[in-house]
């Protein structure tokens, strides 16, 4: 049996769960929030509607460790890349190359973040970068260079993520 597109692509990617694409996931109800909390996931219920915070604690590499119990929003989310493959605008191989490129660039951002002190690993990527970039200059020139490189590198990652994974796909 041929694996589904989500089995093929999503399990190589995980960017929707690791805080790279999204900062949080809207939960359908307080009951769903309770289920997610019971699974050990970080949930903020101090908002009008409960949200699950990303990066997701259930992400194991690029796969969901609570897949059968994931929230409704996670079940229905499809990034633009997946939609492009589904409608034939891109091949699976092309999509795999986009995923590899994005993951490589994000790894570079994470390396730079590690060189800038005081970043919280539980923050989504965009928020961690914004926090690091806006921090007071360091007496260490290497950290300041890393911060400047982080700003440029993250700007490129943001462009790539929006263009490839988050843009709205028009219906055919």
Q: How would you sum up the major sheet?
A: 3 strands, antiparallel
In total, the number of strands is 5
**Which runs of at least 5 residues are low in confidence (pLDDT < 50)?**
none
Q: Look at the helices and sheets and give the structural class.
A: mainly alpha
- Average the pLDDT over all residues and give the rounded result: 92
- H/E element order: HEHEEEEHHHHH
Tell me the radius of gyration: 17 Å
Cross-sheet strand order for the largest sheet: 1-3-2
Q: What's the shape? A: globular
Question: Which range best describes the helical content: under 10%, 10-25%, 25-40%, 40-55%, 55-70% or over 70%?
Answer: 40-55%
User: How far do the termini sit from each other?
Assistant: 28 Å
Question: Which percent band covers the strand fraction?
Answer: 5-15%
**Number of alpha- plus pi-helical segments:** 7
What report would you give on this structure?
The structure is a single chain. The chain has helices at residues 5-13, 30-38, 72-76, 80-86, 92-115, 125-134, 141-166, and strands at 24-26, 43-44, 51-53, 59-60, 63-64. With 172 residues, it is mainly alpha-helical. The strands form 2 sheets. The chain has a 3-stranded antiparallel β-sheet with strand order 1-3-2. A two-stranded antiparallel sheet has the order 4-5. β4 (59-60) and β5 (63-64) form a beta hairpin. The two termini are 28 Å apart.
């Amino acid at each position: 049996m041929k694996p589904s597109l989500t089995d093929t692509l999503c399990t190589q990617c995980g960017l929707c769960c690791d805080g790279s694409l999204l900062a949080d996931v809207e939960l359908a109800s307080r009951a769903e929030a309770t289920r997610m909390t019971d699974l050990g996931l970080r949930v903020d219920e101090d908002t009008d509607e409960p949200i699950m915070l990303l990066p997701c604690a259930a992400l194991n590499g690029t796969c969901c460790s609570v897949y059968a119990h994931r929230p409704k929003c996670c079940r229905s989310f499809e990034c633009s890349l997946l939609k492009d493959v589904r409608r034939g605008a891109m091949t699976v191989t092309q999509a795999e190359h986009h995923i590899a490129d994005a993951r490589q660039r994000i790894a570079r951002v994470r390396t730079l973040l590690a060189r800038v002190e005081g970043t919280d690993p539980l923050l989504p990527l965009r928020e961690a970068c914004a926090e690091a970039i806006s921090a007071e200059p360091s007496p260490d020139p290497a950290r300041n260079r890393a911060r400047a490189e982080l700003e440029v590198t993250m700007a490129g990652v943001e462009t790539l993520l929006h263009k490839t994974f988050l843009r709205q796909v028009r219906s055919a």
